[in-house]
Amino acid sequence: EKPYVCSQCGKAFNQKSILDRHEKLHPGEKPYKCNDCGKSFNYPSQLKVHCHSHTGE
């Protein structure tokens, strides 16, 4: 059972926290921002990979 439904696209989730994270990813909102250059990303993993471009790692 997936009782938590996105009001924007109808996708359902079994945890409210996952729904909350999902809803932030709809167009226009990228909550994970690089402190070095200001570029924003949908997922923290994308930000982590991007940050390596600044450090050269």
Helix content estimate:
25-40%
Q: List the strand order in the largest sheet.
A: 1-2
Q: What would the principal axes of the Cα set say about the shape?
A: elongated
What's the total helix number?
A: 2
User: How many E strands?
Assistant: 4
pLDDT < 50 stretches = none
C-alpha-based Rg, rounded: 14 Å
Largest sheet descriptor:
2 strands, antiparallel
**What structural class do you assign from the helix and strand content?**
alpha+beta
For the termini, the CA-CA separation is 43 Å
Average predicted local confidence, pLDDT? 91
Explain what you see.
The protein has 2 helices and 4 strands. It has 57 residues and is an alpha+beta fold. The strands form 2 sheets. Strands 1-2 form a two-stranded antiparallel sheet. It has a two-stranded antiparallel ribbon with strand order 3-4. The protein is elongated. The termini are far apart. The model has no long low-confidence stretch (mean pLDDT 91).
